[in-house]
Amino acid sequence: MKLLTICLSSVLLFTYQNAAAQPNQIDQKALKQEAISLIKKFGGQLKPELKKALKSKGPVHAVEVCAKKAPEIARKINASSSNWHIKRVSLKNRNPNAKPDAWERKVLTMFDQKRLNGESAKKMAYSEVVDGKFRFMKAQATEAVCLTCHSKNIAPNIQKAIHQYYPNDKATGYSLGEIRGAFSLEYNPQGTLPNVRIIKKIPNFMKLNNRALSPVSP
Ligand code: HEC
Questions:
Q1: Cβ contact 193:147 at 8 Å
Q2: CA dist., res. 2 & res. 127, Å (int)
Q3: b/e map of 165-188 (b: 16 or more CB within 10 Å)?
Q4: 145 C-alpha vs ligand 1 centroid, how far in Å?
Q5: Rounded to whole angstroms, how far apart are CA atoms 164 and 184?
Q6: Which end of the chain has fewer CB atoms within 10 angstroms, the N or the C?
Q7: For 46-58, how does the pLDDT look when each residue is reduced to its tens digit (9 = 90+)?
Q8: Which atom belonging to ligand 1 lies closest to the Cα atom of 71?
């Protein structure tokens, strides 16, 4: 009898573990695809803007375009998805908001190490479930076009323009192929509450009731 119980419970445990692992794996695969398509959306809007600005009015104007457009594009993408949050981060950040948190720092350090071991930055990505949230990072390599504003030798007029917007800029000194930074995405299965403006108007004494509001799927 004892043996039967042990056998039965191990079968049950095995089935349970399998059932628990399966959806997670499928979800992660789908989420990775979603993350990649959001990155393409971000890069697909920013890079042409940058190139157009460089070509039409030169790098000083392009600094301005980058400073305004990059945060704006991120904001728009984030506003259109209640579950996803996308941003760019770097160990040597230019924008103060691009400072990595502990997890992002770990991943960026790992990317740098991989590159030192000879791996190309182009296909480097990493994902993990952290505190119930799916997190994904994709490295951004330093390409030739990036050197104008992120290398060791930045023209003085461009340097001046960068300092005007970012007095604490650390994002210089990069060479071709180095990891400039990464896209960092977070998927929160709970989503955000649908209309923040309405919620702000709720008087303080009712605030606890916010917990009762469940997120509406997009
Ligand atoms: C015309 C100048 C210019 C060029 C060229 C340029 N950048 Fe930047 N980069 C900026 C500015 C300005 C910011 C800050 C924008 C912001 O607020 O997000 C920035 C921010 C970033 C960030 C966000 C992290 C941080 O340090 O704030 C990454 C990642 C980045 N650039 C990567 C690149 C890559 C990769 C290329 C080449 C494909 C490139 N940049 C080309 C000016 C430039």
A1: no
A2: 43
A3: ebeebebeebeeeebbbbbbbbbb
A4: 10
A5: 26
A6: N
A7: 999 999 999 999 9
A8: 18
